[in-house]
Amino acid sequence: MQRTRRSLFARLVIRVAVVLAGGAAMLMTAAWLYARAAADEAYDRLLQGAAIQILDSLVVEEGRITVNLPPSAFELLGLAPRDKIFYRVMAPDASTLTGYEDLEFPVDIANARTEALFQTSRFRDQPVRMVAASRAIADPSIGGWANVLIAQTTEARQQLTTELTTRALALVGVMSLLALGGTILAVRYSLRPLDVLGDTLRRRDSQDLTPLAVDVPRELAPFVESINHFMGRLDDRLQLLQRFIADSAHQIRTPLTALSAQVSLINEEALSENDRRHLDRVKNRASELARFTTQLLNHAMVIHRFDSVQLSPIDVVDVARKAFRAAVPITIDPDIVVSFEAPPEPLMVLGDGLSLREAIVNVIDNSLRHGVVSSLAVRVIRRGDFVLVEVEDDGPGIPAQDWAQVTRRFVSSKSGEGSSGLGFAIASEVATTLNGALAFRERTPRTGFTTFLELPLIDARPSA
Predict the structure, then answer these.
(1) Could you report the per-residue pLDDT of 228-264, keeping only the tens digit for each?
(2) 3-state DSSP assignment of residue 70
(3) Are 116 and 51 in contact (CB under 8 A)?
(4) What's the distance, CA 46 to chain centroid?
(5) What is the separation of C-alpha 441 from the centre of its chain, rounded to a whole number of angstroms?
(6) Which of 326, 317, 400 is nearest to 363 (CA)?
(7) Which of 81, 219, 284, 417 is most buried, with most CB under 10 Å away?
(8) CA–CA dist 388, 381 (Å, integer)
(9) How confident is the model at residue 389 (pLDDT cuts 50, 70, 90)?
(10) For residue 314, what are the β-bridge partners?
(11) Which residues pair with 134 in a beta bridge?
(12) For the whole prediction, is pTM greater than 0.70?
């Protein structure tokens, strides 16, 4: 049993979606890093500006450094109202002029004499961003470098980072969805040749084994070539089978006919009673073998024709008439009344004339061998959108409980020696292939037992 797997379209879309998701994750990581760097740079400039303003406010008076903290310095830091500010102004001797005496810079601030230094640290159990800046004091009484340390909590930085990252996330998400939608459309359009190829194969007649002629991309060309190669090999096999059936029919029927002819030439009057009984058995066996061989070959022929012959409109009335003439022998008992009834207008069905004729012949032959007592009637009638080929005889008929069994191969409607056959099996297979059925109707006081083939008409016009 073939296992159902995920479609090629789904595989491609899932793989592209995974690639897009990976790319989106990388972009989001880059966006977060960029947002954090941008937030640090923006607020670091504010810290540096505040530190420079405080350094510029340092004044030397009477050998002492005084600090006049400019309001503008803290106004800059006030742009982040939820953050806390800590500062410390240090004299050249490292004494605290103003601010928090316990505020320490994590690294040596000697390099702050050339440029501002920035560090991320913790102060009083809070994460802070710190800046250290220095200014040379020109007064010879003091001499050295005054330092300013400013620390600011990072809540505003994190908020700005989150805001920038969220905007980038929304942009990347929208672009990813648009890219996925475009990918789905592109994949669907790219896989259309597969749909065209599949539709061509589905609409192709089962008997059409000619090479496929469909435009496909270069990647599908080997697939189409393999299909054409396989159909060519299958066509060769079917032709070989057809020749085998024809040759077998000729090679088998000829010796059987000769055997029957040789047996008929035996002078029965010169034989004893016991030998006559043996001769009758040989005749019956030869006749049964000839009939059974014919049925086997006909069954193989029917199967082969439905695999290789294209169905076409046929007239059931004409086919049934020919089957009636072929099935009813000239040497039939003159006491048996046979009749054929059919409407004057044709009744058309979609089928194969030879196979349908063989099916009707088998039904009539079965009735003649196992059912007929004194009458046989073959009728072709129209019933609604169907045509019925009825074979009625005045025999005992088949019990209703056996109807399902007699259409199986090697099961006959009559029990007894040499009674197994393929007649109903052939008729049932032909009817089923033509979207019809083989059915039975029990005998009544006014009608006999009836076997009928029911086939759908091509033109479903309402009947009178």
Answers:
(1) 888 888 878 877 776 776 666 666 767 777 777 777 7
(2) coil
(3) yes
(4) 63
(5) 44
(6) 326
(7) 284
(8) 5
(9) very high
(10) 349
(11) 147
(12) no
Residue listed under structure tokens 């039904």: 363
Distance (Å, whole) CA 372 – CA 395: 5
Q: CA 355 to CA 294: how far, in whole Å?
A: 14
User: How many other C-beta atoms are found inside a 10 Å radius of the C-beta of residue 71?
Assistant: 8
Strand 337-341's sheet: what is its strand order?
A: 337-341, 375-383, 386-393, 449-456, 437-441
Tell me which residue has tokens 């979207």.
435
Task: Give the angle 272-276-282 at the CA atoms, nearest 5°.
Answer: 145
Phi, psi for residue 386 in degrees, rounded to 5: -130, 155
Enter the tokens of residue 270.
Answer: 């010169």
Token digits of residue 21:
């998701």
296, containing H or E segment: helix 273-308
For residue 305 the two structure tokens come to 């024709």
Distance CA(450)–CA(321), nearest Å, equals: 18
- Which pLDDT does position 293 carry in this prediction? 67
221: three-class secondary structure by DSSP: helix
Nearest CA-CA partner of 300 in 360, 353, 254, 238:
238
- Measured between its terminal Cα atoms, the distance across the chain in Å is 48
Strand pairing partners for 455?
387
Ramachandran category for residue 125: left, alpha or beta (phi over 0 → left; psi -120 to 50 → alpha): left
- Tally the C-alpha atoms within 13 A of residue 103's C-alpha that lie toward its C-beta: 26
Distance CA 35, CA 268 (A): 117
CA 380 to chain centre: 45
* Residue in 303, 312, 311, 318 with CA at minimum distance from that of residue 389: 318
Q: Which amino acid is at 394?
A: D
Phi, psi torsion values for 441, nearest 5 degrees: -135, 125
Lowest mean pLDDT among 240-244, 296-300, 453-457: 296-300
Collapsing DSSP to helix, strand or coil, 262 comes out as: helix
Rounded CA gap, 365 and 250, in Å?
22
Per DSSP, the residues of 305-372 read: HHHHSPPEEEEHHHHHHHHHHHHS-TT--TTSEEEEE--SS--EEEE-HHHHHHHHHHHHHHHHHHT-
CA distances to 29, 240, 250, 251, 355 from 243, in Å: 73, 5, 11, 12, 17
Under 8 Å CB-to-CB from 156, ≥6 apart: which residues?
43, 79, 80, 82, 83
- Measured N-to-C along each axis, helices 273-308 and 423-433 cross at an angle, to the nearest 10 degrees, of 10
The closest of 1, 152, 6, 168 to 86, measured between CA atoms, is 152
- Residue 376 φ then ψ, to 5°: -140, 130
